[in-house]
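Record pair follows.
FIRST:
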Amino acid sequence: MTLLAIERMKLFTTRSPWWCMFAALLLTVGLGVLYAATAPAEFTVVGATQSGGQLGMMVIMVLAALAVTTEYRFGTIKATFQAVPNRTAVMLAKSGVVAALAFVIGEIAAFLAWGVSYLITGGETLVLDAGHEWRNVAGLGLVYAGAALYALAVGMLVRQSAGAISLVIVWALLVESLVGLLPRVGDDIFDWMPFAAANQFLQGGAPQTPMTSQMPEAPIGPWASLVYFLAVGVALLVIALITVRKRDA
C-alpha cells in the first residue's frame, strides 16, 4: 500500500500526467461527439460515439511511457531503488497505479462521449440495449488500461522518453496497418496483432453496418481478443521487469 501511495503521489505531482489526462478526455469525447453529430443516420451507432478512442489511447500511452522514462531522465529512479531495493515491487506498483488511472479515464471518456452524443442526436440507435453496445462503451477503459501496460513495458526497456513514445505510437498507428499489406500472409498476421485484437474486442460481434461491412472476420471472438491483447501486454511487462532487475539503473 505504501508503494502504491508513493507512486500515486509521484504521478500526480507533475504536470505532464494532468495534461495527458485532459488531452485524452478532450480527444475521446470531442471527436466521438463530432462524428456522431455529423455522420449520416446509417452511420450513427453506439460504436461511432467512440471514434476518438484511438487517439485518446495514444495519449494514454504517452502518459504511461512518461511515468517511467521521466524518472530515468532525471535520475530519481536511483533514489527510488535505493529506498526500495525490490525493483519488481516498485515497477509493479507504478504499473498498477498507471493502469488503474488509464482505466478510469477510459470509462469516463467513453460514457461522456456516448452521453453527449445521445443528447445531441436524440437517436434511438444510441440506446445501450445490447451486449456489443455496452462493450463498445464500457470496454474502452479495459483497452486503455491494457495499452498503458504496453507503454509502461516499452518505457522500462527503452528508458528514454522520445524513443519509447515513438515506438508505441508508430506500432499502434502504422506498423500493424502495414503488416496487413504484406502479400498472402498480411491479413492472417494482422488478425493477431495486439491492437487489432483490442479493436476486435470493442467492435466485434455487432450487426453489420455500412461502417463495418468491409471489416474481415476475426479468428477469435471479442472477449477472447481482449484476453489475448492483455496477455501480450502482460508478457511484455514481465520481460521489461526482468530487464529492469538485471541492468543498472
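SECOND:
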Amino acid sequence: MIEAFVLVVVKPGTEEKVYEALKNNERIKEIYRVYGEYDLILRVEVGSIEELDKFHDEVLRRIKNIEMTETLIASSYRG
C-alpha cells in the first residue's frame, strides 16, 4: 500500500467545486482545506505507483479548476 499526500492549488473561489468533485473518490481518505500556498491537501491510498499515476491522469488532471498539484509519497522511519 502506498500513502501519498497531494498538495493542490485551485483557481480562486473554486475550492468547494473541487472538493465536491473529489469527495467520493475511494482512493482519497481525507481532504483538508488549508491556508497558505496550497488550497487543499489530499491523503491518498493506492496499491502501486501505477495506480497513483492513474489517479493523477484520470482524476486530478480532468478537474479543470485544479491549477497545480504536488505529490509527496509517504515513507516510514526504520529504527
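COMMENT: The helical segments are 15-22, 49-58.
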